[in-house]
Design goal:
Elements (H helix, E strand, L loop, with lengths): L5 E7 L7 H8 L7 E7 L16 E5 L6 H11 L4 E6 L2 E3 L3 H8 L5 E10 L7 H9 L9 E3 L8 E3 H5 L5 H4 L3 H10 L3 E12 L5 H22 L4 H9 L4 H16 L1 H9 L1 H21 L4 H11 L11
Parallel strand pairs: 1-2, 1-4, 2-3, 6-9
Antiparallel strand pairs: 4-8, 5-9, 6-8, 7-9
């Protein structure tokens, strides 16, 4: 049996057709047996097969109902046969040359994690452009490549042995990729960006949609980050008390980041300042809720959101 160079984990739920462009883009990479796709199927019982799952490179993994997004990704890592594992959301697609560029970045023996460029797959649809800037704007091509402290959330690659080294902790760390990345950096791991690898991401298009997502995400992130950092009561209280100020801080920080590098992006954020502030307020509320009361059912709800939330595609394409 040929050992692949790259294992790609894609989790799919009830929206069966939405994963088809992702699988097609992976098949078009031209790696043949060097690529395996681990398609984690969390769809309802009796659901139709995902279009493209019949490809030879695709291994379908079915886990029990109620398996969370994080737990399913962790279990897929344990099934991976390649020395490198890449995570891709089912509402993404990768451009030609993505896989070779990612593998090329891992030729740097000191690199544990590799990220890539991210572009909006549904530009001009609702608020997709602004949301894309908030979610993945720091990874908008062209990228300089090289060392970084930031990787795209839910869409990045790692050395398989580095992930497996976390053992039973991996599902908990994958509940929020930011915490996983922070842990790796504290342990002295190094991340790089593959400047020639590009992914297209189907963004949310409305305040209601992105608001729900960020609230659930930060409700998980807040207590997990606090536990990782061994925060005391005082620091937790500070972040809760700062909740009303976070939107203004986040908006000003984003505008400052873009003002010289991409001034047109800074202007886009300023034109949409009320929308941006509302998104950050929802995220801050989620973090405060998590710090005060714990994550509760947020991980299960985020799994449903991740795999079921509508993401409108351009009229010339299908979601």
């Amino acid at each position: 049996m040929v050992i692949p160079d790259l294992s790609v984990v894609v989790v799919v739920g009830p929206l069966r057709g939405r994963a088809a462009p992702c699988l097609a883009s992976l098949d078009a990479q031209g790696l043949g047996e060097r690529l395996e796709v681990l398609l984690v199927d969390l769809g309802p019982e009796g659901a139709e097969p995902v279009p493209g799952s019949e490809k030879v490179s695709v291994r379908v993994l079915q886990f029990p109902p109620g398996t969370t997004f994080s737990a399913s990704r962790a279990r897929a890592v344990a099934e991976a046969r390649a020395p490198v594992v890449a995570f891709l959301e089912e509402h993404t697609r990768v451009r030609p040359g993505w896989a070779e560029a990612v593998l090329g970045a891992f030729r740097d023996s000191g690199a544990t994690g590799v990220g890539w460029g991210v572009v909006c797959a549904n530009p001009g649809v609702g608020k997709a452009d602004v949301i894309g800037l908030l979610s993945y704007g720091l990874f908008e091509p062209p990228l300089a490549g090289g060392k970084t402290r930031l990787l795209p959330g839910h869409n990045a690659s790692f050395r398989t042995d580095a992930l497996l080294a976390f053992g039973d902790e991996l599902p908990r760390l994958l509940a929020c990729d930011l915490v996983l990345h922070e842990r790796m950096l504290r342990e002295g791991r190094r991340f790089v960006l593959a400047k020639d690898a590009v992914m297209e991401h189907l963004n949310e298009t409305s305040l209601h949609s992105i608001g729900l997502g960020v609230e659930l995400f930060y409700r998980i992130y807040g207590p997990l980050r606090a536990a990782e950092g061994r925060w005391g009561l005082g620091r937790r209280a500070f972040y809760v008390a700062a909740t009303p100020l976070i939107p203004l801080y986040a908006l000003l920080l984003a505008v400052w980041r873009y003002r010289k590098r991409r001034p047109e992006r800074a202007r886009l954020l300023l034109r949409n300042a009320p929308f941006v502030a509302a998104v950050h307020l929802r995220a801050a509320w989620g973090q405060a809720h998590g710090l005060l009361f714990g994550p509760g059912d947020a991980e299960a709800r985020f799994t449903d959101y991740e795999l079921s939330e509508p993401r409108e595609a351009p009229r010339s394409a299908s979601a």
